[in-house]
Amino acid sequence: MRVRIDPERCQGHGRCYDLAPELFGDDDEGYGQVLGDGAVPPALAGKARLAASNCPERAIDLPGDG
Question: Which fold has domain 4-61?
């Protein structure tokens, strides 16, 4: 599983990096960013899904999940 954030949708609510700080961080303006290359270790798949489902803008994409 991989994760990515659509920068045009992200409004900087910060839920992604609050819920899954192992996978997401923020930029200088508070917008979410994927840490590393976007690969999600199996142990963090639940956190990735939680962050995606809690993003009010639906800016988080989990290609290949499902």
Answer: Alpha-Beta Plaits (3.30.70)
pLDDT in tens, 46-59: 999 999 999 999 99
CA distance 20 to 53: 12
Residues of the chain under the 70 pLDDT cut: 66
Per-domain boundaries in the chain: 4-61
